């Protein structure tokens, strides 16, 4: 009898799912990266670790955020145009020094879109052939640099603008291209 109940307990334990909330490798990359940089900046600037001060700092940081990080800020309600406000789900745990991975796990339960954000693949400007890129990708390079190409009508115009600005924004890539 004991053998049978022990066997059934062992079987039940093996069938139970593990920790469902744990993040997998590469999951929630924008959330983890953004909050990790943010937490480090709080420590570096000796910010008082209370919920209200952290909320103010998040909103301030999010004003300068671009791309996927701005979208993350929108999802947690740290931008002016955000529809929901779950910023306290970030500020309160950070005030207790909860690891950012755990915060992102909780945010994932509240809004799964947060963990669907992924950074765009970065192009290696030292080796990429600009002529083989799409105009969309060339525009994205300029956008990441905070530049635009007014009057650019053809692909060659975008390529010329990128090569012109490369020494300013990607000096290593510009040097590697001149060495070729």
Explain this structure to me?
Helix 8 (135-144) runs parallel beside helix 9 (155-169) and helix 9 packs across helix 10 (171-179). This protein is an all-alpha fold. Mean pLDDT is 85; it is low at 6-19. The protein has ten helices and no strands.
Query: What do the pLDDT scores average to?
Result: 85
* Rg for CA atoms: 23 Å
Q: Note the beta-strand portion.
A: under 5%
- H/E series: HHHHHHHHHH
Major pleated sheet: none
Structural class per helix/strand content? Answer: mainly alpha
Unreliable stretches, pLDDT < 50, 5 or more residues?
6-19
How is the topology of this model organized?
Elements: H1 2-15, H2 29-44, H3 51-63, H4 68-76, H5 88-95, H6 100-110, H7 113-116, H8 135-144, H9 155-169, H10 171-179
Helix pairs in contact: 3-5, 5-6, 8-9, 9-10
